[in-house]
Specification:
The protein has ten helices and ten strands. It has 371 residues and is of the alpha+beta class. Helix 6 runs antiparallel to helix 7, helix 7 packs antiparallel against helix 8 and helix 8 packs antiparallel against helix 9.
Length: 371
Amino acid sequence: MTLLTDEQQEIRSLAQRFGDEVVAPGAAQWDREKTFPREVFTQLGELGLMGVCVPERFAGAGADYLSYVLVLEQISRADAGVGVTLAVHTGAGTLPIVAWGSEEQADRFVPPLAQGHEIAAFALTESGSGSDAGAMLSRVDGDGRITGTKQWITNGSYAHSFLVFAKKDGKPTGFLVRRGAEGFAVTREEEKLGQNSSSTADLAFEGTPAEQIGPDGAGMRIALSTLDGGRIGIAAQAVGIAQAALDVATAYAKERVAFGGPIGRFQAIGHKLADMQTEIEAARALVYRAALLKDAGKPHTVEGAQAKLFASRVARHWTGEAIQVLGGYGYTKEFPAERYYRDAKVTEIYEGTSEIQRLVIARGLLGAIAS
């Protein structure tokens, strides 16, 4: 995208180099062994990429949201598990503290997160409340102690700070919980189809002390505003995964010889790759548009939903077609295409399913009659 500023291009190039040189070489092993590469996030922090859009006064890089999206795309192109760890850490775990926390809370919690010394998590989902977040059962008592459970929490086994939602006087409210607090436990690490280099854990709170963030009853406002931006980040992740699949399919089509020449000369292959590239570029444009709206302080709920809906579908579909281009090799772990395919599917599920994105878009069009 030639319309990027010099600073944005430099940040993208930095993330691309780091992805190519540090992340991608380890991705297959991390996937196979289900390894969380903690040292990678320390290195990302040293480069300023764990807090790329966090204000400088909180030890962040002070760049804009589009720059953050560019970083997510490049890191996810190298490994989607590392990409989602970064996305949740920054977009869902750190930025809400900047936006909703007191100045004292931001001064205390944010700098170690922005520098990569610590990792953040966002704990909203429960076994009986996913898309219907208002049905949560977690409660906080009069002493500010949370009791309840959370499920499918990205970064759950490794995070130091958790943004946790629980009901206070019957209304969802936001709280900050520190790892190691009394009554806090990681109860299970999930076995997943893909993104195996990321942590997805179940959490339990039993009278766990917590600090409130934001006003009483503001939990849904905090969660929904966080998800508005988070969807843009996941859409960028999906674009990165799809781009990785296009890269490997294109390289294979140039090198694989059949019937006297490279298979890319066949119209069936060439047209498939042309459609793949076109849809990825369309998804990328939707993602950048949503990020630019957020940077401008303009409404971006619908645009973020559109970006996530389209980009996740593009990633899921075209990673499958990349396998088709590689033929039998695509179905093996000798090539990364099958990993991209497994990694892509969840982008249609987390941070709001595709069905929820359609509902958000429909409500933007139709108002209250959409259901």
